[in-house]
Automatic annotation (TrEMBL):
This is Uncharacterized protein. The keyword RNA-binding does not apply. Belongs to the VPS35L family. GO terms for biological process: endocytic recycling; protein transport. Keywords: Endosome, Protein transport, Transport. Signal peptide: none annotated. It comes from Acanthoscelides obtectus. GO terms for cellular component: endosome. It is found in: Endosome. It comes from the Eukaryota. InterPro entries: VPS35L. The keyword Transport applies.
Length: 518
């Protein structure tokens, strides 16, 4: 039979079946002939009107095999033909037959590889993945895999094949997916290789994205709660759940157009609480920091001020607990703290903790971190804080969160508030001057000096002699010993000149006359 073309065999499949069942040659077994016929029909199927008749005739003999090896060999060859050409009901019957033959005397233990190939063919050739999951005999077939590593491989194969264009909200399908995912999750332990850990995390995250209840947000939230309980050992999955719940919160706000009812307000607060409770379970400090900030921003976006405040306080607490600050972590932390600063502009003060309590807390934290003094990241961050305080002193901020009153509305340029800002600026400038002194004469000192000069010149009150003198001294310091970036300083001077002309600021013009290149 193997010498014929598959198309020739397919056209005469019924004749071949009749010849095979009448063949009693001891040199060639019935199993081998049926297997060869199945492989030929996989390549080229018979006419549609003959397909069921052929399967019925063949399966009568396959099912009668008492030798498990002969049976599973034939099933492996014919399963693709069955999955491609027959209904889910027929497939389910065949799966039941496989279970019936493999269960006695734990026969399945000797045929894990064959069963794995069979499951792979079922999954890769089935066009209705959801119906496959809810088949009565599909999960019992998976339960035949008693060896953990083999069961994990099979579940991986199921959840990665034919799984792209698929979403579900069916509870039976969801339970089946959760079962398969739990097998993967529970296989993870301290000895799991990093690549395996990452791969399983990606698979579970992908499954979580596939469960979509549309606008039934409460049901969606219930699923995320269940998933958190089931998949608590993998960072990427917990992070994905926090991200999904934050998306749920934002979508809720969009639907109500920012005007929450009592029910939606309770729901978004519950979402914020979910995130706040879930984040501490994540091992990665970087991920926790990012998610606390994001969750705080989303809570603020939904007018959940208490929940936002709790997230921002958690950020400060985490930063204060950081131990070793490496060069790599300095790059992340400097960028991250700038994001925090930009967020704090629109965060209203908690009346129970006084003026700018979060910003003061952040300043205390970053001051105590063990920064590399030669990189002077702390000095750059202080300059950014001056930028923030300068904007905070304005009558109206450049951006707001809808329906959240920021400090410009709360204080309304109150004198005490402005005095507090000025005092903080004075303290920070003093800190920067100390850093400049500690740096000594170097290129980094020149860079930090010119950055502070810009802030003092453009944001300070140059009518005060002390402020004007400070600006001039900073300019001269930046030029000291030839460490300055002359092109940058020339552009800086030109910018100040244009700014002075645009604002008609006489004090800026006077400063401009005093700053020269030596």
């Amino acid at each position: 039979m193997s010498s014929f073309k598959p198309s020739y065999v397919a056209e005469r499949a019924s004749d071949f079946v009749n010849m095979i069942v009448k063949c009693f040659d001891d040199c060639i077994t019935l199993c081998s002939l049926l297997r060869m016929l199945g492989l030929c029909l996989n390549v080229c199927p018979p006419p549609s009107e003959q397909r069921r008749h052929i399967l019925t005739a063949v399966w009568k003999y396959v099912s009668a095999f008492t030798n498990p090896a002969e049976y599973i060999t034939c099933v492996e060859a014919w399963i693709q033909y069955i999955v491609v050409h027959f209904s889910n009901r027929d497939i389910n019957i065949i799966l039941g037959d496989i279970i019936e033959h493999m269960s006695p005397n734990r026969n399945f233990e000797n045929f894990y590889n064959d069963l794995k190939i069979i499951v792979g063919k079922i999954v890769s050739n089935n066009q209705d993945f959801e119906m496959l999951l809810v088949m009565e005999n599909f999960l019992p077939l998976i339960d035949l895999f008693q060896q953990e590593y083999m069961k994990v491989e099979v579940c991986k194969n199921i959840l990665t094949n034919n799984f792209t264009c698929f979403t579900t909200n069916d509870p039976v399908t969801t339970n089946a997916l959760m079962y398969l995912c739990t097998v993967l999750h529970d296989s993870v332990n301290a000895l799991t290789p990093e690549d395996e850990y990452r791969q399983i995390g990606e698979i579970l995250c992908n499954v979580i994205r596939k469960v979509d209840y549309g606008r039934d947000f409460e049901q969606q939230m219930n699923f995320y709660v269940e998933a958190r309980g089931a998949f608590s050992n993998i960072d990427t999955v917990l992070a994905e759940l926090v991200q999904r719940v934050n998306c749920l919160t934002v979508n809720t706000r969009h639907i109500v157009k920012g005007i929450h009812t009592r029910k939606t307000a309770d729901f978004v607060r519950a979402c914020a609480a979910y995130c706040f409770i879930t984040i501490p379970s994540i091992v990665s400090e970087k991920t926790r920091l990012e998610l606390y900030l994001l969750s705080g921003q989303v809570a603020l976006f939904n007018q959940c001020l208490g929940q936002a405040d709790a997230c921002f306080k958690a950020v400060l607490s985490m930063l204060s607990d950081l131990q070793d600050v490496t060069t790599k972590s300095e790059i992340f932390l400097s960028s991250y703290i700038r994001q925090v600063l930009s967020t704090l502009l629109v965060v209203p003060d908690n009346p129970e903790r006084g003026v700018l309590s979060l910003l003061k807390g952040l300043l205390n934290v970053i001051r105590d971190l063990d920064w590399n003094k030669q990189n002077c990241v702390l000095g750059s961050l202080y300059v950014n804080v001056i930028d923030l305080l300068s904007v905070m002193s304005q009558e109206e901020y450049s951006y707001h969160v809808d329906r959240v009153e920021s400090n410009d509305s709360l204080y309304g340029s109150d004198t005490k508030f402005l005095v507090e800002i000025n005092n903080m600026c004075s303290i920070i400038i003093g800190e920067i001057l100390t850093l400049l002194k500690d740096l000594g004469i170097c290129r980094r000192q020149s860079q930090l000096a010119i950055e502070l000069f810009l802030r003092v010149a453009l944001r300070g009150d140059l009518s005060m002699k002390s402020v004007s003198a400070l600006a001039l001294n900073l300019w001269q310091l930046s030029l000291k010993n030839g460490n300055a970036d002359v092109k940058y300083m020339a552009k800086t001077k030109e910018y100040i000149r244009k700014r002075g002309m645009a604002t008609n600021d006489i004090h800026l013009h006077q400063l401009l006359d005093k700053i020269i290149f030596q």
